[in-house]
Design a protein that fits this description.
Leucine-rich repeat, LRR (right-handed beta-alpha superhelix), six-stranded parallel β-sheet, seven-stranded mixed β-sheet
Length: about 375
């Protein structure tokens, strides 16, 4: 009996030892899994540190370990400056943001005070954001091109320190609200296009606005003391109203007459307007910019005054409903990119109305001779 009891006790000890070891292994495995799931990812981006926390928030902060170098009473430092990145076909010196492959896990963006510049393509494609508002801190001076492209933002407050907003910086988001601070001086091409903004206010220090920067805004308002821009009924002009820069997207009017002070209709000024069917350009206008009516597919008629001498590339490209073009200049205006102009399908059915004494000139002029119906101007 004694021997049996001893063997039974030894067996129990072995079993409990095995159970103990198994429990430890299980605990270690669980801890490893939990750690893997909650581990914070971190990357260095020039003079900033970017971290992705377990709750999906991507945070950018200045790398305070970088020492400022003084030379001839001037301080040099990369502290707070993000690296510029690139998506797609890129120069050898650019790379994809290292957190780009985690965009499906990014639910929020935070840029901390101390960051000075936001890199190109920094947050491109963060379309899974659930926290869709962002505040750009006052320390930021530059917002890089394409930095928030296609990132599902609905609200942006741009801090009172930002001087430049790069091209396409906030393109293709879902913005319904944007506040541009008075420190901003330059806004790049298409910076806010592809959004749903009901209105935007241009502050007094803005000296440059690129093409299509506000092409999808319903009403553009320039503050009265801006020395470079003004607005009339939501239409954006330069200060002396000689250049029409942007006609609002959802303005209810179906017809519009360009003011007589205007000499230049800017690039993409009437691009893809939702309600516009008829536009009259006065005799004061001398040049119509690139893609001025691009993809305005409800536009049916355009009247162009007698001073226009040139029409830039793609002015009427995609104007599939255009059936009447009236030109009052007896000398046919030059058409840039005429080889593309003549391929427009709407030319098959549209009528060109010109001064009666200029019939032969227009029938010989490149581009204009593509119209099958060339008629004298209606009285």
């Amino acid at each position: 009996m004694t021997i049996t009891v001893q063997r039974s006790g030894q067996s129990n000890i072995a079993i409990w030892a095995f159970v103990g070891m198994l429990s430890i292994c299980l605990l270690v495995g669980i801890w490893t899994i939990v750690k893997a799931r909650t581990q914070v990812k971190s990357w260095k981006s020039n003079g900033t540190i970017v971290t992705l926390s377990q709750n999906g928030t991507l945070v950018v902060r200045a790398d305070m370990d970088i020492v400022e170098i003084k030379s001839d009473d001037t301080y040099y430092s990369t502290r707070g400056n993000m690296e510029d990145y690139c998506i797609g076909i890129c120069p050898p010196s650019y790379s994809v943001p290292p957190w780009f492959y985690d965009t499906s896990s990014i639910t929020g963006l935070v840029i901390e005070e101390g960051v000075i510049s936001i890199g190109k393509f920094a947050f491109y494609g963060c379309s899974g954001l659930t926290s869709t508002s962002i505040v750009i801190p006052n320390s930021v001076k530059h917002i890089g091109g394409e930095s928030f492209l296609n990132s599902n933002l609905t609200s942006v407050i741009i801090g009172n320190g930002v001087r430049t907003i790069g091209r396409r910086a906030f393109e293709d988001n879902s913005l319904i609200s944007v506040v541009i601070s008075g420190s901003v001086r330059a806004i790049g091409n298409c910076a806010f296009c592809g959004n749903n903004l009901p209105s935007v206010v241009i502050p007094n220090n803005v000296a440059y606005i690129g093409d299509m920067a506000f092409s999808d805004v319903d009403s553009i308002i320039a503050v009265p003391d801006n020395p470079n821009y003004c607005s009339v009924d939501g239409v954006l002009f330069n200060k002396d109203k000689t250049t029409l820069i942007q006609y609002p997207r959802n303005r209810k009017d179906t017809a519009y007459t360009v003011p007589k002070s205007v000499t230049y209709v800017g690039n993409y000024a009437f691009t893809a307007r939702d309600n516009l069917m008829s536009v009259t350009i006065p005799n004061s206008v001398e040049l119509i910019g690139i893609g001025a009516f691009f993809r305005s597919d409800k536009l049916t008629s355009v009247t162009i005054g007698d001073s226009v001498t040139a029409i830039e590339y793609g002015v009427f490209s995609g104007c599939s409903s255009l059936i009447s073009v009236t030109i009052l200049n007896p000398i046919p205006p030059f058409i840039a990119g005429v080889e593309e102009f003549v391929k427009e399908n709407w030319l098959e059915d549209a009528a060109l109305y010109i001064p009666a004494l200029s019939m032969n000139a227009y029938k010989r002029a490149p581009g204009w001779n593509r119209f099958k119906k060339i008629l004298p101007v209606k009285n």
